Amino acid sequence: MVDIIFLGTGSSIPTLRRNHPAILLKYKAEAMLFDCGEGTQKQFRKAGISPMSVKRIFITHWHGDHILGLPGLLQTLVLNGYDKEMEIYGPKGTKQFMQKILEMFVHVGDIKVRVHEVTSGKVFESEDFEIFAEEMMHNARCLAYSFVEKDKIRIDKDKLKKLKIPSSPVLQKLKQGKDIIVNGKKIKANEMTYINKGKKVSIVLDTQINNSIEKIAKNADLLICESTYLDEEETAKQYKHMTAKQAAQAAKKSNAKKLILMHLSQKYEKKENDFLKEARKVFKNTEIAEDLMKVSV
Amino acid sequence: MVDIIFLGTGSSIPTLRRNHPAILLKYKAEAMLFDCGEGTQKQFRKAGISPMSVKRIFITHWHGDHILGLPGLLQTLVLNGYDKEMEIYGPKGTKQFMQKILEMFVHVGDIKVRVHEVTSGKVFESEDFEIFAEEMMHNARCLAYSFVEKDKIRIDKDKLKKLKIPSSPVLQKLKQGKDIIVNGKKIKANEMTYINKGKKVSIVLDTQINNSIEKIAKNADLLICESTYLDEEETAKQYKHMTAKQAAQAAKKSNAKKLILMHLSQKYEKKENDFLKEARKVFKNTEIAEDLMKVSV
To answer: What are the pLDDT digits (tens) for A177-236?
Structure first.
């Protein structure tokens, strides 16, 4: 199961309800942060989650509202004795920006940081999951990311029971696609196993509508997408952002299962429900993120 | 009247109740900010105050908890069309730090900033008030500040009434110390006027106890003082901070009228009342600042 905690869901200027963007993705022992707007360390506290578990931070782009919480978060980690190496992923320029951020550290000690400047493609792989990136279209180099859990081969325990096959360590070979013999009886791997499809979560922030969204979010179980504007397509195009309808169109074209909108401009504080109406005309399974909201996929 | 709004009253790590340090001082048309910890722009919003009125920012020192809200605040001012020149005062090194902060501005436009690196003495003067600074003893160059309203000569209206002297523009000359003649009667300036003593507010953050506190806070109507530790004097000395008792001693030696403690370490979240007890043993008129608390002097 993948847990998403929306630490901040706002846009360039924070409101009382929406802090600057930051999304925490938890999967098994891993905690990954996507963007880190100003005040993210306090949002961690409000959510009752320690930031000490974060091992990777993925930056979509280096506009202030998406990264100004980074120096404070890292300084707090140092003060709390963080001794891992923090892996930071972002577009070209990330090394230089990180250098500037680390130069602002005064008298708090150092933090080990490894910076990865990445472009489109696979940017990280573990035993259980992969992270992919795609370049977006914004007025700064900007990446969208996908967390993709690997598919798992499972043994069909109901079938085993039906056929009265006793539990045995040799059964594990079925997972490797190998046929086995139990009590003189041949058991075929392809008949006794099934594939447990891995979950996919895509995060698309700060971009105008473009075809790479479909590429990164293809068949996602959850697409988290920016929707800075309600329906002003010309304005969205001018400032290289998206409308609620465009986010819904992207979700539909990507064949995503669920869409969650965030990064709503502060100017819509009192008419956020209109975003839902707009988006649901095109893509029914749409929600709007709230700060500290938790979603499991 | 001087209004103080405590935007943030915490220490290096924010708690749910205490954001990083930031103090807003309002006097007539002036709004001045002292320090600007991460999340200060959101604290402005919580307080229902626009940061657009801020014309001067005084930085005590360049540790992260006191300044990491500065880039976000300035960016938000730009986005809101701030067209004044922001005057920023701080210790030696401030120009270099401001340079780094402004280098992080991406695609939000520019803000006009004039940086003043200051030491002990008068650092600003207007028609109505002065700002003084003194160097403190911390593990970074650190300044304490005082806002000092100028004394005003007032005409004693009760006396005028008693002597049946009619209202007249010529009376204004009394304020300049000039004697006047009304209806053939000599009226002496020194008999008909009194001095309205200006208010003084001193802000002492991040320092170990030292004699310059007395110098900056002499006869202050309000001394806002750090009290990072409760009673661990050795620890306070080691990390160059103060205890509650030391803050009270400083208030007493300075002959301050009122003491407000802030910058309490997050580790005392549940025993803040002990700070009051400790301090009041030495200086009775002590309070503890709360985020968004407003005090008028």
So the answer is: 899 988 888 889 888 999 999 999 999 999 999 999 999 999 999 999 999 999 999 999
- pLDDT score for A183: 81
Active-site residue, from A65, A206, A221, A291:
A65
- pLDDT value, residue B109: 77
CB-CB under 8 Å, A79 with B72: no
Residues 89-108 of A with CB under 8 A from B: 97, 100, 103-108
ipTM score assigned to the predicted complex: 0.89
As a whole number of angstroms, the distance between CA A202 and CA A221 comes to 8
For chain B, domain boundaries? 3-151+197-296, 153-194
For tokens 């998206």, name the residue: A242
Residue B79, token pair as written in the block: 């986005």
Alpha-carbon distance of A149 to B60, in angstroms, equals: 48
- Residue predicted with more confidence, B196 or A105: B196
Record the tokens describing residue B212, joined without a space. 């310059």
* Tokens read off for B279: 């301090």
Question: In A140-270, which ranges are E strands?
Answer: 143-149, 152-155, 180-182, 185-187, 193-196, 200-204, 222-226, 259-262
B3-151+197-296 has which fold? Metallo-beta-lactamase; Chain A (3.60.15)
B227 in contact with chain A, both atoms CB, cutoff 8 A: no
Active site residue A65: yes
The model's pTM is: 0.91
Strands (E), chain B: 2-8, 22-27, 30-34, 54-58, 86-90, 113-117, 121-125, 129-135, 143-149, 152-155, 180-182, 185-187, 193-196, 200-204, 222-226, 259-262, 286-288, 294-296
Q: How far is CA A214 from CA A221, A256, A281, in A?
A: 13, 9, 19
B contacts of A240 (beta carbons < 8 Å)? none
Q: For residue range A19-67, what is the model confidence (pLDDT) as tens digits?
A: 999 999 999 999 999 999 999 999 999 999 999 999 999 999 999 999 9
d(CA B296, CA B53) in angstroms, rounded, equals 18
